[in-house]
Write a structure and sequence with these properties.
It is built from twelve helices and ten strands. The protein has about 350 residues and is α+β, with helices and mostly antiparallel strands. It has three domains: about 5-80, Arc Repressor Mutant, subunit A; about 85-130 and about 230-340, GAF domain (Beta-Lactamase), CATH 3.30.450.40; about 130-225, Heat-inducible transcription repressor hrca homolog, domain 3 (Enolase-like, domain 1). The strands form three sheets. The chain has a five-stranded antiparallel beta sheet, sandwiched between helices. A three-stranded antiparallel beta sheet has the order 4-5-6. A two-stranded antiparallel ribbon has the order 1-2. The longest helix is centred in the last third of the chain and has 19 residues, at about 320-340. It starts with a helix and ends with a helix.
């Protein structure tokens, strides 16, 4: 059975109405509100066919129908029209993100998660830059006292990390300055994974009498990079889901909040959703993660110089306003990729 133009228009009307109201849609509603030029009886027959084809679901024999995951998939792949943002909206978003550029990456990521949740009225998940995909931009060594040194690590993706190096010998600031220059000359703009033992031994041969403190610095450097190897994940708008009446159901709400509280499941969800070349839309059971079977997730990767850094996902019920979310997320990703994130 083929889905002809009339069925498509009826399905589209049902999806629009259900997204807006969250109530199963009947044939009379479609006939009155959408002026499709056919009778209520004809619409009812077409809805029955659409249900048989798997595009609609009927919760009860006496109720109207709602879109299925398959129906939403047809909609987002073939029917959805992405609204173009007004110049004023684009300026507001760009200015907000530009104002973040003076802050450290963790604050930027937290703010983006909250800001996107406010714009979409849904939950936003932002995965920070991966240290493995970052390059070292600068390492600073500063004497705190005779036995403690502050090491500050800065990556090109905006990650800043401080660590304390404890030494059993007094180290002069001029020695730290020399070590700092040597390390930066060798490590600057190298990928974290390029910091091999060969590189370390090469530097060590240049240390002379400073070999002991160099060993302390390298050990702390590696341990610090290892600690921040797992990207941070930030959430915004975790309670926005309660704006949708279907989450008045206690069990459904509990499952959703349980998903958000499970770092392992969230990371798994993000990994399965991400398409590095485009915005990805996963609907309902396509997510394959417990607790997300009634949700849709729209996600995208943000980059620096065409190098993927992290990802952003918007999660909500399957009846979310897909076109609006895609438009907003696409604009934010575009601005981030233009170089708004801290360098």
């Amino acid at each position: 059975m083929n889905i002809d133009d009339r069925k498509v228009r009826i399905l589209q009307a049902i999806i629009h109405d259900y997204i807006r109201n969250g109530e199963p849609v009947g044939s009379r509603t479609i006939a009155k509100k959408y002026n499709l030029g056919v009778s209520s009886a004809t619409i009812r027959n077409e809805m029955s066919d659409l249900e048989e084809m798997g595009y609609l679901e009927q919760l009860h024999s006496s109720s109207g129908r709602k879109p299925s995951d398959k129906g939403y998939r047809l909609y987002v792949d073939n029917l959805m029209q992405i609204p173009k943002m007004s110049p004023q909206q684009e300026v507001i978003i760009k200015n907000h993100l530009l104002n973040l550029a003076v802050y450290e990456m963790d604050r930027v990521i937290k703010d983006i998660a909250q800001y996107l949740s406010e714009l979409t009225k849904l939950t936003c998940i932002v995965k920070g830059p991966s240290i493995k995909r970052s390059c070292l931009k600068h390492i600073q060594l500063t004497s705190i006292d005779c036995n403690n040194i502050l090491m500050t690590i800065v990556t090109d993706s905006g990650i800043i990390k401080n660590a304390i190096i404890k030494s059993n010998m007094s180290v002069k600031q001029e020695t730290l300055f020399k070590l700092c220059n040597l390390i930066n000359d060798e490590f600057k703009y190298k990928n974290i994974e390029d910091l091999t033992l060969d590189v370390v031994f090469k530097l060590k041969r240049e240390m002379d009498e400073d070999e002991q403190i160099f060993d302390c610095i390298i050990e702390v450097l590696y341990n610090t990079l290892k600690e921040i190897d797992v990207s941070e994940v930030y959430l915004g708008g975790t309670t926005n889901i309660f704006n949708y009446q279907e989450y008045n159901d206690i069990e459904r709400a509990r499952k959703f909040l349980g998903l958000l509280d499970d770092d392992k499941r969230i990371r798994k969800l993000l990994d399965r959703c991400i398409n590095e070349n485009d915005i990805s839309i996963k609907i309902g059971t396509e997510n394959y993660v417990e607790g997300a079977e009634n949700c849709s997730i729209i996600s995208a990767v943000y980059s620096s110089n065409d190098r993927p850094l992290g990802s952003i996902a918007i999660i909500g019920p399957t009846r979310m306003e897909y076109s609006k979310v895609v438009s907003v997320l696409g604009e934010v990703i575009k601005i981030l990729n233009e170089g708004i994130i801290p360098r």
